[in-house]
Amino acid sequence: MKPIPWWQESVCYQIYLPSFCDGNGDGRGDFPGLLTRLDHLAALGVGAVWITPFYPSPLVDNGYDISNYCAVDPRFGDMGDFRRVVAGCHARGIRVIIDLVVNHVSSEHPWFQDAWNNPASPYRDYFIFSRQPNNWQSFFSGPAWTPEPDTGEFYYHKFAPQQVDLNWANPQVEREIHRVIDFWIAQGVDGFRFDVINFLTTDGVLADNPMENGEQRHAHDVNQPGIIRALQRLCRYVRQRGEFFLIGEIGSDDLEVIRRYQGADLMDVVFNFNLGSQKTFDASRLFAELTAMRERQPGPPTLFFSSHDMPRMISRFGESARDVDRARAVLALQLTAHGVPFIFQGEEFGMTDFVAQSLEQIVDVQGRTHYQTALEAGMTAEQALAVALEHSRDASRAPLAWEEGDASLRDDYRQLIALRNDTPALRHGHYTTLELTDACLWFSRATPDEQVWVAINFGAPVRNPWQHIEGEMLYGEDALWIGKNQFFIKRSCHGKAQ
Fold it and tell me: 2 falls in which pLDDT band (50, 70, 90)?
């Protein structure tokens, strides 16, 4: 029987490095700070960490504008610090996944610095230039084309002008990325999370995007025809070097699009924001998304409810500002449903959103860009700030308050992760039942040797969430309740309740 991949057995923990832990007192998270918190991660029981970009960068987009792929930004430490973190993680049985942004580079990257305003540059074809740009718009608002001063040409960028898109139609770009991958494998990493991987420009500049209801539909600048073949080559290259976890961030809310990028010759998992980024809590919608993933996704789904790109789950889903009971129930779902869990830093402490009170407190480029666009559209400063807050991703990026937080919630994280780590059916069992009754989600998962029954009640407390199953009495000493009768689990061997 084919062995189960290590990543399918693991709970992953996302580290947004700039706000995780400050090791030198400058107010910014760094690798020395992370090194001091490895015991915390080990105590939680996580099997892997995903670290957001730490490369040299002008930080126009929080490090997702890379100016050197093969170095550590001095603000976060040096390569020795990174290697010590990798070694410390491995000594504790924790794998290390790093973010890799291959759609674009910073405008300060040496490749673009040489190509900029220089048609004779050997790096010119690493990027996309045009004398007659089409109508494509940036995903950060405004045009996706910026003019050069002397050549009469424009360069292409899907995001900020300082994030210049790579030309994946050029095989040399692909070879450059292979060298980057080899470099980080040599440093000991165990996987890669590929940012906006369906945005790669593999077929060059295509037709204008259509306009619908006054807004542009991104029909030709993403999911281009050649992208699947390019990703198959990329994944094959990595897998030839060992067992690495390959994660794809897909910029789409269409499951039919998302599922295209997952498979034996593609990404191991893809992020599905339909489940994770819902703005308000809705048990029926959660159930619908779990059902859709069960029926239509070709491999294990991802299970996450917060990240550096969205407001925190406890602020979105709670009935009050600090609804820890709801957080416990969602945690139970995340750690018992079928899929690979990704916990965002600080969720175990019950952290809530940071809310900026002025433009000066907004750091995120997306929020600031929307503020400027709103002013140009005639809005007042107050109205523009409201638009900026709607689009800003600063809410979940505030520094972690390590000495604060809800200790009981942290203990629940430890308990549930330990339960998952000790229960094969919770790591890779298949669903035998998946149902929703009122606000109670209940399911069973099974392997050939074990079955578990799980009930998660998102509504009022109930006496027995398993009353739907005639003849089953699942209470006993090994039954586990979390919170106010919100979560129940029962294990048995060989599919029969003990």
Answer: confident
In sequence order, the β-bridge partners of residue 137 are 143
Going from N- to C-terminal start, the domains of the chain cover: 6-105+171-428, 106-165
CA pair distance 493, 220, nearest whole angstrom: 52
Strand-strand pairing, 145-147 and 48-51: unpaired
Q: How confident is the prediction for the chain on average, in pLDDT?
A: 89
**Could you write out the DSSP letters of every residue in 101-149?**
--SEEETTSHHHHHHTT-TT-TTGGGB-EESS--S-B-TTSSBSEEE-S
Burial 112-125 (b: 16+ CB within 10 A, else e): beebbeeeebebbe
Which residues are marked as active site?
A: 195, 249
Choose the CATH number for 106-165 among 3.30.230.10, 3.90.400.10, 3.30.1360.120, 3.40.630.30: 3.90.400.10
pTM of the model: 0.90
| Domain 6-105+171-428 grouped into CATH 3.20.20.80 | yes
Residue 321's pLDDT is 53
Give 152-159's long-range contacts (Cβ < 8 A, gap of 24+). 153/119, 153/129, 154/129, 154/130, 155/116, 155/127, 155/128, 155/129, 156/127, 156/128, 156/129, 156/130, 156/201, 156/205, 157/104, 158/103, 158/104, 158/196, 158/199, 158/221, 159/61, 159/64, 159/104
Please report the pLDDT score of residue 324 as a whole number. 78
Kindly tell me if the per-residue pLDDT of 376 is higher than 50: yes
Residue 320 main-chain phi, psi, to 5 deg: -135, 180
